[in-house]
Specification:
The chain has a domain at about 35-165. Helices cover about 30% and strands about 30% of the residues. It has helices spanning about 5-20, 30-35, 50-55, 65-70, 90-105, 155-165; strands at about 40-50, 75-80, 105-115, 120-130, 130-140, 145-155.
């Protein structure tokens, strides 16, 4: 059977669409985070594309670091869930988020748990593409709330700290401290 050029073009377009859908889309919410919705007393979810981020950054014209970071960010997706009482979410659900990212080839760069109360945790995952960070996901769980944000685009670790506290992205506290190994004469 011979395929004519007229038939070849629709097949090419169709296969391209399928391959794009098969790739991991930025802003895709892990199933573990989605399942928190059913137990949440309130939820806030929003997504900003690049043009919306640029517009929002103009509200802070003196923050040059924020505008520099936004130049490389293509999108931000934020999901915030509040619960009526403490610990209404399952720890296994939060662990499943990490498992899902690990299975997709992401790397966890921060996993902090509060020792005293045991009710808080912060996890940060990154996805590398051509040895550069292409996506960052932050999961912040407290006693009665869970915040999840995914940032897509060209991002450096320093950029992540500049985005914290803006656009609904939680600030990352208690990050990794790198000791100074430089010796002075």
């Amino acid at each position: 059977m011979r395929i004519t050029p007229v038939l070849c073009i629709p097949l090419l377009v169709f296969s391209t669409i399928l391959s794009l859908e098969a790739q991991e889309q930025p802003g895709r919410v892990p199933q573990g985070v989605q399942s928190l919705q059913q137990f949440a007393a309130s939820k806030s979810e929003f997504t900003f594309d690049h043009s919306m981020l640029v517009l929002a950054s103009k509200l802070q014209p003196d923050n040059e670091d924020l505008r520099r970071v936004i130049a490389g960010v293509s999108g931000v997706s934020v999901h915030r869930y509040r619960f009526s009482s403490a610990r209404q979410y399952d720890d296994a659900t939060l662990r499943s988020v990490g498992d899902e990212y690990h299975a997709a080839g992401w790397m966890r760069v921060l996993n902090k748990r509060e020792k005293d109360s045991g009710t808080g945790m912060t996890s940060v995952w990154i996805r590398l593409e051509n040895n550069a960070i292409s996506n960052v996901a932050v999961l912040l769980a407290k006693a009665n709330e869970v915040d999840f944000a995914e940032i897509s685009g060209s991002i450096s670790p320093v950029d992540i700290s500049h985005l914290g506290g803006h656009f609904g992205i939680p600030k990352i506290e208690g990050g990794v401290v790198v000791p100074n190994t430089e010796r002075r004469p």
